Amino acid sequence: MHHAFQPLQILTLLVATSTGAQAAGDARIDFSRDIRPILATKCYACHGPDEDKREANLRLDVRAEAVKEAIRPGKPEASEFWKRISTADPDDVMPPPSSPKPLTDPERELFRRWIAEGAEYKDHWSFIPIRRPDVPVPATTNPIDAFIQARLRHEGLSPAAQASPPTLIRRVFLDLTGLPPSPEEVAAFVADPASYESIVDRLLASPNFGERWARHWLDEARYADSNGFLGDGLRPNAYRYRDWVIQAINADMPFDQFTIEQIAGDLLPNPSREQLTATGFHRNAALNTEAGVDKEQARFQNLADRVNTTGRVWMGLTIGCAQCHTHKYDPITIRDYYSFYAFFNNTVDRDEPKSKAPTLAELDKDRRQTYVHLAGDYARRGPDVMPASLSALPPMKRPTQPEPTRLDLARWLVSPTNPLTSRVAVNQIWGTLFGTGIVSTPDDFGATGEPPSHPELLDWMASEFMHKGWSRKRLIRLIVTSTTYKQSSNHREDIAEIDPLNRLLSRQNRLRLDAEILRDSALAISGMLVREIGGPSFRPPLPEDVFEVGRSSNWQASPGGEIYRRSLYIITLRSVLYPLLTTFDGPDAADACVRRERSNTPLQALTMMNDPAFVEAAQSLAARVLHGNYHDTKERLTRVFELTLNRPPRPEELTRLKAFFDEQQKRVKAGGNEALKSLSFIEKSVATPNKIEAATLVAIARVLMNLDEFINRE
């Protein structure tokens, strides 16, 4: 297991680095902030929880063990730990010279001061029960702002001004529905900025809300319409799970119920068809159906995926690291892992009789005994284990059955005593709305993950989430109506040194649109978007060379307007991923994706300029404006601009656009029939006298759709 965590990264701004702690003068060393991150990344691999890999019988993650063997609190010079990390002798120094993670001098000084101050330990923050913190004073109308602004004041910073009305309305439309506002909606908000909260309520009630937020959950569910591996057989009814997610989110199903139905809907009393469909969460994983495959090995790997995914998605833990040996950094033993595995060991894959939706079911007889699989080898059986939750977390309630079931597991996950699930869920929502979570490692709330930038705010929101009925919509409304969310994202020189990554949120973050939102936005502004919700996935047109690898060569694009549906409904074949989406960092459905990367590559620019989906959208946008009730070129240019960028052009922008239009019009005239080929499929809908203007407007539309302002959410 490798982590990109760097102890000195980001933590300067959190007063959590060695240099930050030293700069604080006599400020007391804080174990969670200053010491544990260094121990976790540089010491625990050899001196942590994993007893099989532990060197010299020294354990540094537990104070009683460390004090017994190597640390004398209050006396660094008498501590073997200090002697080993400060010596220049290559035979004795720790970490050894061969380690890829040597200690720095500031880190050694931190350890010296920590021992001198008594070598205090603290439980890891994410394993401590959630307690609702007091809202800082002076309290604002929105508690989120009270927490953020108190921190900014402490750091000597002030929040940014509110974003301009066109920027804010575009932001909240894209964030809540994944679609841009119309020019009329922008104009109405500019005329009445006080209508913001009613607009938010309307967007939360829109069926498009469920589509937008389902996409994030489907990433985590590793949703696909095929099995994967070489055969990559179709799953023609997988979409029924996808549609269940959309409907559940639109109905604001409480997150605890949302969890229970997906983990154990089949074990509820008299489960409905929908509750059975929800159990398709764990049917989404890749499945090896190749001839000659070892079926027991494939089953083992599939169940391990269910354990690992449940741990990442609901608890933000890298449970999978304990599949072969006790976790090197977190208190998760290999026995814990297979006790968790036992909840899934007697599941079977079934299809719901009426809808054929893929579901889970529990074996009634001939049940399997679960073992620790030594070294993660499915064929090597160690001690027997019973289903149980993680030993480092609060225990489950006593089960009603002789042994705990998946239903007990699901209820334990969303129990108020579980310190992880609510924190992880609100962090995911926050990360979607700000680009980065309060914990920037959303699938690692363990020792090597990043600590929260605003721990009190995280716990307040986690507590609020549970106390207000686990309502996703209520929490999102609270966030998007905060002044923190509504801030401008403009660059600020005054925070460039103090907070270069904007973790303190003295402004909003500027985000490249998700792949699906880019395509959907292009379709929406062009007038081509087909807004039908749900149903079987469709196949977009693809070039033949995509099929040179793999077996899926009989591709046939879906008929009629289906190819202009939202990107959420594009068929996800694991062997033939839609190139447009992968170019803009769409996930490959191989594993649960809890946070998409945002890259910036030349291929993206080429795709925006040349991919048929964007070229067609530009052509259709030109036709839409040409056929509108506009009297002259200036009005048409203004309309194209407003549709694409969701704001009116400034006078100087309109002047430049008109100059470019005139230049392009000359080129089209000079190019004759060859230049008119840019009209492509809209040519028949354009009268001959208007074809030159139409071709020129296509060029204008293509330029505007390639601007950063279209590709990014400010």
Largest sheet: 2 strands, antiparallel
Strand share of the residues? under 5%
Strand order of the largest sheet: 1-2
- Whole-number mean pLDDT: 93
**Treating each run of at least 4 consecutive H or I residues as one helix, how many helices?**
29
- Note poorly predicted spans: 1-25
Using DSSP, what is the number of strands?
Answer: 6
Structural class call reads: mainly alpha
Helix content: 40-55%
Cα-based radius of gyration, to the nearest Å:
28 Å
**Morphology call:** globular
Distance between the termini: 36 Å
Explain what you see:
The protein is mainly alpha-helical and 714 residues long. Among the domains are: 18-122, no CATH class; 254-413, no CATH class; 612-713, no CATH class. The chain is built from 29 helices and six strands. The strands form three sheets. It has a two-stranded antiparallel ribbon. Strands 3-4 form a two-stranded antiparallel sheet. Strands 5-6 form a two-stranded antiparallel ribbon. The radius of gyration is 28 Å and the shape is globular. The model is unreliable at 1-25 (pLDDT under 50).
Search tags:
714 residues; mainly alpha; two-stranded antiparallel ribbon; two-stranded antiparallel sheet; 29 helices; globular; disordered N terminus
